[in-house]
Specification:
Blueprint lengths: L16 H6 L3 H4 L3 H17 L5 H20 L11 H13 L12 H37 L4 E6 L2 E7 H26 L1 E2 L15 H7 L4 E2 L3 H6 L2 H27 L7 E2 L18 H24 L13 H25 L1 E2 L1 H6 L8 H12 L3 H18 L8 H5 L15 H7 L8 H15 L1
The chain binds arginine (ARG).
Length: 460
């Protein structure tokens, strides 16, 4: 092994063979090729503008980079592990294509500011993709909510039937969560959109560069103020991973509900054949694999966040090759999140809600017991604590007789509280319960319709 021709000037011999295994990042950072070329073009043009390199050399560099861009797009570019990473691969190919002018490109630049420029550009686009994936999922949920704004199901706390709600209201709860996720990506994207290019290795450069020019050419809002921060900071990547982790936890909650809802015991939703798999031994099975995989993949995304946070923790300023470990974690999280979002959006659009099963599930758990207590407060003017006790005693009677509250005889209620009248039956059905919850953000279909309207204008 000869010494690396890109930096081998003072090296008498090549690296140990294990170094050729541990050092290269090309297998994964080839994903930064487009961004790397964009960064190099902006840098070369700025160098020429500042008369740091000649115009002819700049034109040769741009022409060569265009050719390389095409080779990479066609899949004809030969990536080499011996050249370590995407930056050195491209620079080496540029030398083959245009000769010595290629060597001028790396003036007033280092791989340290180069790589993190590429990475910020890549993540800026990843934030856009996450936003689009989240919006598509919101639209699918909104579609279900529109169809089921008045479909009654049991709402749960502690996984016990609590109070009736509508399925549309439930779907819109996720629309809210995914909207906040979009906000987190948008915040992260704004904060990461500053240019590290021109920080050079760590201290800046003696060449009269113009960092505003490269920053602008690459669509950054401004150059980063501190060169040491520019090459060493990775909080922008952590922020993306944190946003991805939170979005993934939301996905996993929804996935968990779909798994549960699609069991025969619930039967709240049916996934079509397209979104279920069979069992090789049990012919009756319809397994919700996509939902389970989405739920499971949340662990990967959180793992990616923890891995990078651990890499950065305690790392002295400025650049250390530890930071080469940043990219795989981010790529994995982005791939996982984008796949999960696409699969979830398709699955939500595909599922069929079973309104009869949802309504029937409201019967066994006395979910209108709170409505009974509220009626006793409102009409009989009892303190809530006393009303709670009366309603609890009535639930006990209904339970013993095996009937729902709205099927219990008035006489049975009056045996517990003689002042109760037949008027009470107006509040004991799940329909009445849901319709009465007209407070802002409540589950009454009229309120759900307002939410639907709100989202329609945002989601288009
Ligand atoms: N492949 C490196 C990375 O991913 C690029 C920067 C290398 N800089 C250096 N001085 N070794 O971080």
């Amino acid at each position: 092994m000869v010494t690396n021709k890109m930096w081998g000037g003072r090296f008498a011999r090549g690296p140990a063979s294990i170094m050729e295994v541990i050092t290269p990042s090309i297998d994964f950072d080839k994903r930064l090729a487009v961004q790397d070329i964009a960064g190099s073009k902006a840098h070369a043009r700025m160098l020429a503008m500042q008369q740091i390199i000649g115009q002819a050399d700049c034109e040769a560099i741009i022409r060569g980079l265009d050719l390389i861009e095409n080779e990479i797009a066609d899949g004809t570019f030969a990536f080499s592990r011996a050249l370590e990473d995407i930056h050195l691969n491209i620079e080496s190919r540029l030398r083959e294509l245009i000769g010595d002018a290629a060597g001028r490109l790396h003036t007033a630049r280092s791989r340290n500011d180069q790589v993190v420029t590429d990475f910020r550009l890549w993540l800026r686009e990843a934030c856009v993709r996450a936003d689009q994936g989240l919006e598509a999922l919101q639209r699918a949920l909104h579609g279900q909510a529109e169809a089921h704004y008045a479909t009654i199901m049991p709402g749960y706390t502690h996984m016990q039937p609590a109070q009736p709600v509508t399925f549309g209201h439930h779907c819109l709860a996720y629309v809210e969560m995914f909207y906040r996720d979009r906000g987190r990506f948008s915040d992260a994207s704004k904060r990461l959109n500053e240019s590290p290019l021109g920080a050079a290795a760590l201290a800046g450069t003696p060449f009269p560069i113009d960092r505003d020019v490269t920053s602008k050419a690459l669509g950054f809002a401004r150059p980063m103020r501190n060169s040491l921060d520019a090459v060493s900071a990775r909080d922008f990547a952590l922020e993306y991973l944190a946003a991805a982790t939170i979005a993934a936890t939301h996905l996993s909650r929804l996935a968990g509900e779909i798994v549960q809802w699609s069991t025969p015991a619930f039967g709240f939703v049916r996934l079509s054949d397209a979104f279920t798999t069979g069992s090789s031994i049990m012919p009756q099975k319809r397994n919700p694999d996509a939902a389970e995989l989405i739920r499971g993949k949340t662990g990967r995304v959180l793992g990616d966040f923890v891995a990078l946070a651990t890499v950065v923790k305690g790392l002295v300023l400025t650049y250390g090759t530890d930071l080469q470990e940043d990219k795989e974690r981010v790529f994995d999280a982005a791939d996982t999140l984008e796949l999960s979002l696409a699969a979830m959006a398709a699955m939500v659009a595909d599922l069929t809600a079973n309104a009869e099963k949802m309504r029937a599930a409201c019967e066994p758990g006395f979910p209108t017991a709170t409505d009974l207590a509220d009626w006793v407060v409102r009409v009989l003017k009892k303190p809530f604590r006393e009303a709670h006790h009366i309603a609890g005693s009535i639930v006990k009677v209904a339970e013993d007789k095996g009937v729902s509250l709205d099927k219990l005889a008035l006489a049975d209620m009056q045996a517990i509280e003689p002042a109760i009248t037949a008027e009470v039956f107006k509040v004991l059905s799940p329909e009445a319960s849901v319709n009465s919850r007209m407070s802002l953000g409540g589950t009454a279909p009229a309120r759900v319709k307002e939410q639907l309207h709100h989202w329609r204008s945002i989601l288009r």
